[in-house]
């Protein structure tokens, strides 16, 4: 059964198009990820799914209800965590929990089991004001507040933005646990390395969905061979590679540069000779296997050239 | 109902936790009443005076002494040069340069008329008017005192009979400016709480993004708005009570009318100003914008509301505009009820106007709020 069914949704603000004729489905029990850069339209899409804004055209059906017609009966079934921390900074951890529990007609005690794995980490700060929590703690509190009324669908807008690497990993593990308990989760992130945490991901850019698939399939669909190139001067390396006649894409990737070629099989020796001639030192070139970031960048490049 | 209770709980928790705002809410009535009532006075105190006495007679000295003895004028310097007096005014050393002409005593004693000149610093027109008024009346007194002696010389007889007007000032027998000011200041106080705090509070939810989280909860609009308006409605009425106590015990402001009537009308008045505050919150995105608009409106309301100058002395168009000024109506009602003991019969017309404003503005603001966040 599909929990979310979106058909041909568009949304623009003035002359800026945020969403351009989007369609997708999310099945019940999925951990579904939206991955894309800032300004891709993720937040606009989530605000439509959570009944906070209306699409210009198209329909969105969530939990079998229309987001415009049935918004009143839909809201209590949703848990939403906005991208910007939206709890009361001048209320304590406990007061925030109590407030959001009570407006949903429940209490922390009643649904404690559900939030326990997350909230237990916050309990020693119960009396601390939410504004005084660290980034990771804030996100845990926001997740607890979004969960307290046992929602059937959890919508999280960039929950790991501004959170350190360890907390990010921890956060995804929490989402996975909730998902195992039967809650469908839709989350967005600008970090491509987080794609692997999801059952399925949608790559989104400039209001278009470029691809929807499992992370493994997305990587597999990337056909071009990739070379990881390294040299002492990163800046000059990128510059020279861009000037190479066979270059298809050049993307910095940690201490390496990921390089793809227009030809089917790149010639490593030829490339090395070109770079040495250009006066670069410490050159190392080796084939590498693509990951989701390579796929995404390639897809984005296509999207830009065709659109 | 339960939801509204939780919202109120949350609001009061936040209000009482706000360390910078809370003291102001409770200290404001005291400070405003004390400072404004004493500072915004039309009584004259200790005007510095320069005397240019060309006559140097016992009579001219008597006049100067009489001015000093009144307690309103203080002799700061004297000279025999009018320009010196003007220079002193220019330097802000004195506000009045009094010039007594030569032959002042001789002219008066011989039954001729003489004139003294008052050069007044009129940058502040109101004070200048007061200096002129007080000065003139003292000089006239002086004139009356010496007149019989002067006329003795010519013909015996008593002061010429004539009409005398004896004014009786009702409701404020000593023409106490404080009694006029305090009721008005109390109105400004509750208006500020109504217009600024409740409107600002709503904008704040939008500014810091908490409105996003609230909007996905089953909280309904009317519950949200009630939760925002009610706390400040209660606080404002409480403040009015505190203010009235301070006014009564601290300033001896009479409280002739009915407290119940006054609070009943205040409750309606609050709905009007809170409606305006709510309306402002629907057309702004940040607290700064809301503050700016609220402040602009407030200044217009106060200046055209008869707090400092009576509405009756404004031009006709301004008086007609004052019809739409809730602050003006409530200031008038406050003065009528507090000082004159006006009852329902006397204030029902104005109260009706306020009620009309409430039933127009508040629903309009709520409607507009729904549209702006749809």
From TrEMBL, chain A:
SUPFAM superfamilies: P-loop containing nucleoside triphosphate hydrolases. Keywords: ATP-binding, Nucleotide-binding. One of its GO terms (molecular function) is ATP hydrolysis activity. Residues 4-231 form the ABC transporter domain. Coiled coil: none annotated. PANTHER family: ABC TRANSPORTER G FAMILY MEMBER 20 ISOFORM X1, ATP-BINDING CASSETTE, SUB-FAMILY H, MEMBER 1. This is ABC-type multidrug transport system, ATPase component. It comes from Fodinibius roseus.
TrEMBL record, chain B:
It is a multi-pass membrane protein. It comes from the Bacteria. Keywords: Cell membrane, Membrane, Transmembrane, Transmembrane helix, Transport. Gene3D superfamilies: abc type-2 transporter like domain. One of its GO terms (molecular function) is ABC-type transporter activity. It is found in: Cell membrane. Residues 139-372 form the ABC transmembrane type-2 domain. GO terms for cellular component: ATP-binding cassette (ABC) transporter complex. The chain crosses the membrane at residues 21-42, 177-197, 229-249, 255-280, 292-311, 350-369. Belongs to the ABC-2 integral membrane protein family. This is Transport permease protein. It comes from Fodinibius roseus. The lineage of its organism: Bacteria, Pseudomonadati, Balneolota, Balneolia, Balneolales.
